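Thread: sanity check for a docking pose with zinc ion

Original post by kr_44:
Hi all, I'm comparing my docking run against an independent structure prediction. Below are the sequence and the ligand SMILES. Could someone generate the full complex and paste the structure tokens? I mainly care about where the ligand ends up relative to the chain.
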Amino acid sequence: MSKKGRKIFRVLLIILFIGFLIPQNLKMPVEGAKQSDYNSKSFWFYPWGKSVAHKGVDIFARKGTAIYSSTTGIVLSSGEIKRGGNFVLILGPKWRLHYYAHLDKVKVTSLSFVNRNSKIGTVGTSGNAVGKAPHLHYSILTLVPYIWRIDDDKQGWKKMLYLNPIKYFED
Ligand SMILES: [Zn+2]
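Reply from moderator J.T.:
Ran it for you. Here is the predicted complex with zinc ion included:
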């Protein structure tokens, strides 16, 4: 590797390292939600339609309830997709993506900075939640795979990417 190449590599390693140092301090994203508003066993619930296993948690609340970012971060993307409906995708500490789906309204734009006091949207029934009880589908994905978490469950290999949000709520 050239001298310049080595320097760029070193800078990237430092940036990667700093990302891991930022504390996550995860906050329940749905305003006023309690343990009874979600099923503690909903992570990797199987069978789960087209998703096969449920790779997140569904937090039930009245339509229009505020959703706050669970961590500090940068909004990478927001808008509307088929299954997720109105969604927000935030890059947070430790190179983890936070995915919020089925929103009624999205209140942030891409590339904006958010913290745990930022209202990012409201609870709704968009995407494949149409006709169901209003809820937030919330997933956490790590960009750095945790391969030691792979197990024999259905699609268990994907457990290197999807982390269980409930674990952080209840810590
Ligand atoms: Zn869900």
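The radius of gyration is 17 Å. Hope that helps with the comparison, let us know if your pose agrees.
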